[in-house]
Design goal:
Elements lengths: L4 E2 L4 E6 L5 E7 L9 H11 L16 E3 L3 E2 L2 E2 L4 E6 L21 H8 L16 H13 L4 E9 L2 E2 L11 H5 L8 H16 L6 E8 L13 H10 L4 E6 L10 H4 L17 E2 L2 E2 L4 E7 L9 E4 L5 E4 L10 H23 L4 H4 L2
Antiparallel strand pairs: 1-2, 2-3, 3-7, 4-7, 5-6, 8-9, 8-10, 10-14, 11-14, 12-13, 15-16
């Protein structure tokens, strides 16, 4: 299986399955001399872990990371950073009923058609459990670019959405993290939570959107043509389980405007009066806030009976069992931030190669 490596200079390779012994990864390209804050790494893992509230899967995983290499006395050595996270609370018997049948809109069918075999236990490699490795790498990336703020929050669930721009919200960590759904608007949060509980009660699931904002990023980050900054951010977000869409800046709304309405006019210092560009022009950051929105589909495994097919070509009836998220959005917030950090730190390192003046010493 290819496709397990992300990044160019700062690069993460991951391995492991949902119900395997462990998941883990190797981080290449992390500079030597970074003093790691292990509490911050664990804090990010805790934000992603299951069992943190009544609206997520009750699977009880401690999600403790164990570093194997690349760190001495808490400081990175410049060599590959190896790590593992053990699985402690997997219940593979919950998935025996789908060993030979396919869940609608899940990767069960496509994995088996590609490889001729699939790990039906929790989805194997296609499970969102795989994203835990991204959070480890992303939390280290965040510590490398600590002056840059990466803030994500749930902006809609189903047909309920925050009708405010991010500039008009309290995006402090305290305000977002006090919400079980990580929604910074208390009025909208209550409606979202009510909808999730109602949907969970009838055995169904919900999708929605997450908004991400990058603040304090300098201009000149990104590469032209095929490796544009927004293209890499889109790839990073679309690699996350259940993501169906990505838009940055004015997004699809911008297609309805004229050029005179859409153009971001300059201030004398190079900033712009508006920011419909979303902080990126020509695939390169312009120093304004970068902001984008990601759409997540409803979780495919539902606790309702559905008609499906089995591997032998027969119709069958399937009904979900076990422990599943009725809505993935709250736990996806730290994953979005981690993938964003991996993109930004990689492009910061690539920028060093763009000018002779930055590498001559």
């Amino acid at each position: 299986m290819a496709g397990n490596i992300f990044g160019n200079i700062f690069r993460i390779t991951t391995f492991g399955e949902s119900h395997g012994k462990s998941l883990g990864g190797i981080i290449d390209g992390c500079p030597a001399g970074l003093k790691l804050n292990f509490k911050k790494i664990q804090k990010e893992l805790n934000r992603r872990r299951p069992g943190q509230s009544s609206i997520v899967t009750p699977r009880n995983e401690p999600d403790q990371v164990n570093f194997l290499s690349g760190i001495l006395d808490g400081i990175t050595t410049g060599t590959p950073i190896g790590f593992i996270i053990d699985n402690k609370d997997h219940k593979s018997e919950d998935y025996k009923h789908i060993k030979n049948i396919y869940r609608p809109s899940h990767s069960d069918f496509t994995y088996e058609k590609k490889y001729g075999i699939r790990d039906y236990r929790g989805g194997g490699r296609s499970s969102a459990r795989e994203t835990i490795c991204r959070v480890v790498a992303g939390s280290i990336a965040k510590q490398l670019i600590k002056n840059i703020q990466i803030i994500s929050y749930v902006s809609s669930v189903g047909n309920i959405e925050i009708n405010k721009s991010y500039q008009n919200l309290d995006l402090s960590e305290k305000n977002i993290e006090k919400s079980p759904i990580r929604c910074p608007d208390i009025y909208t949060e209550k409606k979202m939570l009510s909808l999730i509980h109602q949907t969970k009660k009838i055995g169904d699931t919900l999708g929605g959107t997450i908004t991400c904002v990058i603040k304090n990023i300098s201009s000149g980050i990104g590469e032209p043509v095929f490796d544009k900054l927004h293209a890499e951010l889109a790839k990073a977000m679309l690699s996350i389980n259940a993501v169906k869409g990505f838009e940055y800046g004015s997004g699809f709304f911008g297609s309805k405007l004229t050029g005179s309405q859409h153009n971001d006019l300059f201030n004398i210092d190079g900033t712009t009066k508006t920011n419909l560009s979303g902080g990126i022009q020509g695939g390169i950051s312009n120093g304004m806030d970068i902001y984008f929105k990601i759409a997540f589909k409803p979780v495919a495994t539902i606790m309702k009976k559905q008609k499906t097919i089995d591997k032998y070509g027969n119709f069958s009836i399937i009904e979900g069992k076990g422990r599943h998220d009725p809505c993935v959005l709250p736990r996806a917030v730290p994953i979005v931030e981690s993938m964003t950090a991996l993109v930004i730190v990689d492009y910061y390192m690539l920028k060093k190669l763009s000018k002779y003046s930055e590498i001559k010493n």
